[in-house]
Write a structure and sequence with these properties.
41% of the residues lie in helices and 14% in strands. It is an alpha/beta fold. It folds into 3 domains: 197 residues, NAD(P)-binding Rossmann-like Domain (Rossmann fold, 3-Layer(aba) Sandwich), CATH 3.40.50.720; 86 residues, N-(1-d-carboxylethyl)-l-norvaline Dehydrogenase, domain 2 (Orthogonal Bundle); 134 residues, NAD(P)-binding Rossmann-like Domain (Rossmann fold). Bound molecules: uridine-5'-diphosphate-glucuronic acid.
Length: 432
């Protein structure tokens, strides 16, 4: 099938490349000409394991191409995926849909034969209805169907999540598009993915509901971790004990820092905003957002306690600063809240991240990037393990100590408390 992905951000690029790997002809379109030029040379704008190899392979065999000419690309394609960003609106909490509607207007002028127009971007309920109205204005009667097909890819695991999804959600009541899309996804369905057909509005809501529910699970376990710290209980026992109940499930019950990334913070706020619009109070999700916003302060309070309230001139190392492992994404990472506050209090901060220097800390006083774990640990008073990269999972800390031992605060519960303590380190973790 001939597909066109509009927007070569995370969703569009990963989905486009994976669809081409399944044998489709895919054009990935972006208005950023520089980005398109680089993609043609095999330069990938994001860090995602396995993506670069797939881009190069499918570009070489000509199933994958890149273009900044939206109209011609739409003209040549049967299925158009809208994959542009829906960030939080400036100064508000709803999703900014300006890019979606701009693309819809452009697409409306290029419908030369029947096309399926799909939103893969995360969009609030009724966005599909608006797109349909925009496309109808250009005398396109019976020449298009607007479908919602949300994605559930996790950064760092995106290729795997695309290839082995739990479910494929298709929001459309239209028979022809359903038949075509079931066929498009048949290689994944035959490997066990469930194909769920529902209304367009329901598909739009399923995406937000899923992210909000996962964010709730994480917040729930983070709050319980606070209780465990005061009652000498290990939060991991609680996660295991709860998670074994099939109605609850064990995933997303790892306590840690505030959840971050480009999706959970933005989508929890946007679903509340949609509900407000329809005069519905999503009180559970509202308290999740509030609790998560307080999470970094709770962890900072623990840092102050560990350092006996003497922060000035303390050397603090951050191992990992991205919001999670296997990504270079800094969006809404809890390190962006913690590091500036510690710097303000006079700490001297060094950080190491496997994805390198981060411009986000450029203008923050006393924060420097080190290009190795060893250098970042030298002379440190406190080491904060912020991100669960494999690189940090079996460190022999003794090797890095010259003189006084540093204290370790492990925000991801990577290490066994008893083992680290027998090596003579003061060790603190989350909920245990
Ligand atoms: C999330 C969803 O998991 C995807 O299904 C969805 O497609 C994506 O958002 C999106 O809407 O595009 P992602 O943001 O890449 O994916 O990352 P997650 O793996 O879900 O992690 C989000 C945050 O939760 C991270 O800060 C992570 O550290 C935290 N987390 C996750 C925990 O603190 N504990 C857990 O047990 C799991």
């Amino acid at each position: 099938m001939k597909l066109c992905m509009i927007g070569t951000g995370y969703v569009g690029l990963v989905s486009g490349v994976c669809f081409s790997d399944l044998g489709n002809e895919v054009i990935c379109v972006d208005k950023d000409e520089e980005k398109i030029k680089l993609l043609k040379k095999g330069v990938i704008p994001i860090y995602e394991p396995g993506l670069s190899e797939l881009v190069i392979k499918n570009y070489k065999n000509k199933r994958l191409s890149f273009s900044s000419d939206l109209r011609t690309s739409v003209n040549k394609s049967d299925i158009i995926f809208i994959c542009v960003g829906t960030p939080t609106i400036k100064g508000g909490s709803s999703a900014d849909l300006s890019q979606i509607y701009k693309v819809a207007k452009e697409v409306s002028t290029s419908i030369n034969k029947f096309k399926i127009i799909i939103t893969k971007s995360t969009v609030p309920v009724t966005t599909g209805d608006e797109i349909e109205k925009i496309l109808s204005k250009k005398n396109n009667k019976n020449k298009f169907a607007v479908v919602s097909n949300p994605e559930f890819l996790r950064e760092g695991e995106a290729i795997r999540d695309f290839t082995y999804p739990d479910r494929i959600i298709i929001g459309s009541n239209e028979k022809k598009s359903n038949r075509i899309l079931k066929n498009l996804y048949s290689p994944l369905i035959s490997k066990g993915a469930l194909y769920v057909n529902t209304s367009r509005r329901a598909a739009e809501l399923i995406k937000y509901a899923s992210n909000a529910f996962l964010a709730t699970k994480i917040t729930f376990i983070n709050e319980l971790a606070n209780l465990c710290e005061k009652t000498a209980i290990n939060i991991e026992d609680i996660s295991i004990g709860m998670g074994l109940d099939k109605r609850i499930g064990s995933r997303f019950l790892r306590a840690g820092p505030a959840y971050g990334g480009s999706c959970f913070p933005k989508d929890t706020k946007a679903i509340i905003s949609t509900a407000d619009k329809f005069k519905t109070n999503l009180s559970v999700i509202k308290s999740v957002v509030k609790s998560n916003e307080k999470r970094s302060n709770i962890l900072l309070e623990r840092v102050y306690k560990i350092l006996k309230k003497k922060i000035k001139n303390k050397k603090i190392t951050f191992l990992g600063v991205t919001f999670k492992a296997n990504t270079d994404d800094m969006r809404d990472s809890s390190s962006l809240q913690m590091i500036p506050i510690l710097s303000k209090k006079g700490a001297k901060i060094k950080y190491f991240d496997p994805t390198g220097y981060k411009k986000e800390f450029k203008n923050i006083k006393n924060v420097s990037y080190e290009n190795s774990i060893k250098k970042s640990l030298q002379g440190s008073d406190l080491v904060i393990i912020h991100t669960e990269w494999n690189d940090f999972k079996s460190l022999n800390f003794k090797k890095f100590v010259k003189g006084k031992k540093f204290i370790i605060f492990d925000l991801r519960n990577i290490y066994s408390s008893s083992k680290i303590k027998t090596q003579g380190f003061k060790y603190f973790s989350i909920g245990r």
